[in-house]
Amino acid sequence: MLLSVRAVEKSFETTDGPQPVLRGVSFELNRGQTLALTGESGSGKSTLLHLVAGLDIPDTGAIEVEGHDIAKMSDGARAALRRDAVGLIFQQFNLIPSLSVRDNLTFHARLAGREPGNIAELAERLGLLGHLDRFPEQLSGGQQQRVAIGRTLIAKPRLVLADEPTGNLDESTGDAMMALMRDMVTETGAGLLMVTHSIRLADMLDERLHLRAGRVA
Ligand SMILES: Nc1ncnc2c1ncn2[C@@H]1O[C@H](COP(=O)(O)OP(=O)(O)OP(=O)(O)O)[C@@H](O)[C@H]1O
Asked: What is the per-residue DSSP string for 44-89?
């Protein structure tokens, strides 16, 4: 089992007291499987993704990545797992401004201990072949998003966590990036958990998990 989420609950403190955001969420994700996380705004999708990424811990319940309960790991071990096994594509692209597109890609591969491989081929699939020597600030939002996707895929993570990864792209470019992510998952046997508001994109993935007010609907 790649990812196991069991009976996860999470509340946030507010001025009106604790506000429950996740109220007992359970699901599993296998290698090579793609899962769309859907639900209306505020239903807890990003919160759940952050917990799975180990950026925060649940109040109760357990999240296991490759059999490791991430709440029970030391900070160092959790960071190592994130670096080696997990790829994040979040809405803030977090590209390194002082590095070119090429160097952003290769840096991320090396950070995960992987060889970058054929950068030109990846850039072509990302539609960024002519942009490898540019810096992030010289790219459009959609181009930066594609670098962020490429940077994650080049590190060959075993679990890809993506929050609206095609939100800044037009429909056809978004579909091409979805196909790229799905191919990569198929080729490497990784798993993909992707938050999306788009039913059309959700339908491109194997399974769907719909959240309603913090519960699986
Ligand atoms: N750090 C926090 N402190 C307090 N409340 C929070 C925090 N993070 C999220 N929330 C609240 O938790 C609820 C769920 O937020 P979350 O971002 O998980 O929803 P979402 O389903 O991803 O929404 P969207 O589709 O709009 O991105 C919201 O009511 C939000 O205000």
From this structure: SHHHHHHHHTTSS--SEEEEEETTEEGGGS-HHHHHHHHHHHEEEE
Amino acid at 145: Q
Name the residue ranges covered by the structural domains of the chain. Answer: 34-54+74-208
Q: What is the pLDDT of residues 24-73, one digit of tens each?
A: 999 999 999 999 999 999 999 999 999 999 999 999 999 999 999 999 99
- Virtual torsion, Cα 75, 77, 83, 88, nearest 10 deg: -50
Provide CB contacts within 8 A for 127, sequence distance 6+.
146, 173, 176
Tens digit of each residue's pLDDT (9 = 90 or more) over 118-151: 999 999 999 999 999 999 999 999 999 999 999 9
pTM given for the model: 0.92
Report how far ligand 1's centroid is from the alpha carbon of 11 (Å).
10
Q: Nearest residue CA, atom 4 of ligand 1?
A: 12
Q: How far is the CA of 112 from the centre of ligand 1 (A)?
A: 30
- What are φ and ψ of residue 216, in 5° steps? -70, 125
Q: How far is the CA of 129 from the centre of ligand 1 (A)?
A: 37
Provide the CATH topology of domain 34-54+74-208.
Answer: Rossmann fold (3.40.50)
